[in-house]
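The data are set out underneath:

___
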Amino acid sequence: MSSHDRESLSRRGLLAKSAAGITLLASGAHAAARDQKKRDQQARKTRRRIPIGLQLYSVRAECKRDLPGTIAAVGKMGYTAVEFAGYYDRSAEELRKMLDDNGLLCCGTHTGLDTLLGDNLPKTIEFNKTIGNKYLVVPGLPSKYRSSRRAWLDTAKLFSELAEKVKPHGMLVGYHNHGVEFQAMDGELPWETFFGNTHKDVIMQLDVGNAMHGGVDPLPYLYRYPERAVTVHIKEYSKTDENAFVGEGDVNWKAFVALCKAVGNTEWYIVEYERPGTPPLEAVKRCLQNLRRMKLRF
């Protein structure tokens, strides 16, 4: 091989090494950029403010007596939205006007499973479009849907199918717990049977107080089913005071809020207070005031 050929090969080798080095550097830069983007997204997620709504079941007697006045009072307290649990014989248009007149949004409806089945589903979708709601949450199930592990598995399949049906309309189907979902059945908690076998689009509306009454710590479920706690119920639990307001019991709200932001994909905190002893409107106002005093970076 001539010296010219050796020089040419050496030059080509140098160029190849340089190109390889540039490729590695570019690859590393891209990877670093991706990692930084993920970190930035996580930081934004942690910093974002999640609004607070009220489950109107908390003030159901007041709603029955004077729905417009009750909704106005809730808005004046500083709540951003309401979650309906019944419509008090009002049309969707009437409800929407009440919300608009008071600067409130709808952060969900507690709706019976039957309203999501068969010919009822299209009507339910249209009703919720009118009131501006996309969260269709079932608050409890008839016994045939939860009487055994097999029943829970069938119900999980049903909810996954419903989630697919409402998705084109920009809506989500979800399930809200009481305590029974955390009582073992056939060797497994129904909550785990259900959410372990539903599509990820099915909302996990975790009610903190109800879960603790059922005997479990709710926090691990935010980890176990990430990005599914799209709306959550802020309800207090206390071993010593069953009438405790939010922030005055045993719930570690600081940890709960941090997890909702970090892994829950939570869009709404929804206060619910059901205990007797304090006038309901006064009670839900106090719960909101306590949340603000805690300065939890909602």
Summary: Residues 152 and 268 are 26 Å apart (CA to CA). The mean pLDDT is 90.
